[in-house]
What does this fold into?
Amino acid sequence: MAENNNKIPPKNNKRKPRFNLSWFYLIIAVALGWLFLNSGDGTQSGASKSATYSEFKQYVERGYASRIVVYKEQGPLNMYVKAEHIRDVFKSGTGRKNDVEPYVIVKFGSIDKLEDFLDEQQEQGNFTGELTYKEQDGTLWHILINFGPFLFLIFFWMFIMGRMGGGGNMGGGMNIFNVGRSRAQKVEVDENSKVTFADVAGQTGAKQEVKEIVEFLKNPKKFTDLGGKIPKGALLVGPPGTGKTLLAKAVAGEADVPFFSMSGSDFVEMFVGVGASRVRDLFRQAKEASPCIIFIDEIDAVGRARARNTVMGGNDERESTLNQLLTEMDGFGTNSGVIILAATNRADILDKALLRAGRFDRQIHVDLPDVNERKAIFKVHLRPLKIDKDLDIDFLARQTPGFSGADIANVCNEAALIAARHNKTSVSKDDFLAAVDRIIGGLEKKTKVLTAEEKRTIALHEAGHATISWNLQYANPLVKVTIVPRGRALGAAWYLPEERQITTKEQMLDEMCALLGGRAAEELFTGHISSGAMNDLERVTKQAYGMIAYMGMSERLPNLCYYNNDEYQFSKPYSEETARLIDQEVQQMVNEQYARAKQLLTEKSDGHAQLAQLLVDREVIFAEDVERIFGPRPWTSRADEIIDEAEETAPLPSSSEGEA
It folds into this structure.
């Protein structure tokens, strides 16, 4: 390993310019054109036209001919026209300044009759010029006539193949001669755009795993002296936008070794066998540059599990590419000093042979950030923004549960755009709330007109959600309630979901009761129900079926999980009688929570009425308004407990926090 370090090329090594075949084609075309234009009688010629033998005789009799060149072997003749008769022959000027002696091309039958005619015209004084005979040099002309179309098709085909598949492969465009070469890009780290581990906020565990890989490459002797072996590969697994590619960029910035980056789809091509050839070429380049790192993004494009029956949906080309990848990663060949990093958000569909130890020794899970990690990510993306001094970053972190690092970056950018749209000098809390609403709910539908009755029904519905969630211990804390149409929703209540590691049955029932609060409020205070609760009912039904059929939270079906098992060929692992029992348990659970919601709304009817009227008047109300009506909640939010505990145990802040 130590000897291979001398093979590493310097970072500032400039690539040699490659010859572009387009210039070669252009040179050939110009040369052929020049030869064609200069393959005549060796004289400079101008414009020409074809004429019949009868027209030729008339031109000569009228004295238009200055000289005549006759080609032997039944070839045509060229009658050069006098300057004063050009308009008579061509009916107009040639329109070209460089024309010298325009001529007429004439085919004739017998050369004896032609000579007799010209002798007669010379005696009469109509033709006083020279009559010359020349050998016709038609070799190139015949070649172009016979083989020109084929040559054109060949050059056109080579031109198209030179651009098929796009450019950018190892410094040159794709063509038929290098279609099997790897399309991996060798990352050249620039100091201005360099990404390091200090630029990645959160993901402490994932960063530690990746840092060890960099340490393996920088100081392998530290591990090999103890008998350890450098891992051959690591797979980054996680939802989209969590920073898998960013971690790979950080590895490229930290590791002082060559770094090859490509996508899984780059192996796939229309030609059979190209994928396997590109895999071989990639590992050949990596071995020559070892120690190095290969990063394959979205590896599921080529690493999908192979089909058992190729007739039923198999893909021989993709599977042959995968087989070659498996062989190169852990076959009879040696890949000393080559570490493979790969990223995917669909690890469940990858082939088992690809995931085994010896190929991908580690699976690094890059999960969605928790509340503290989101706070660190917000601090990064808020740096370039002019934010309000009173902005609470803890509140923003709590307001964005389930958001990835990419989502948080989008929220900050959207908030800045909203503030600029309203001509503000700084970005405030309202702008961030509007940005979150925009991303989750969609644009405000200001053109959607509601009648007074529809507006009151929506206000009662949303006030029902707010009332019950405020008065239940395990329901999500309320942030704001609005009856402004947004996206497909006519109104919405925004909460701070509790990010629990485990969820009890009581917590789920409270959330279910809060979801049913809108429908219960409609029935209690308007006397009818509407279609506005369809999304609430869908979520309640799914949650109830999950609790009973999968989590074993039913009194009549306790401790049973009826999961769908793909290993066996059946759709549901229970009988029809059990299915009927599950339906009954779901209906009973939903009915109990619906009755509980109606009872709670009846007890809090005065506060609910005030909340609904406030919604009708202002259209948007916040948690402070609900607190003035119902009083403060007696329970502490789990998010608050986590943030308080993190602040107590956190070390002094450093200046090396980064983005995710």
Q: What stands out?
A: Confidence is low (pLDDT under 50) at residues 1-16, 39-45, 165-177, 652-660.
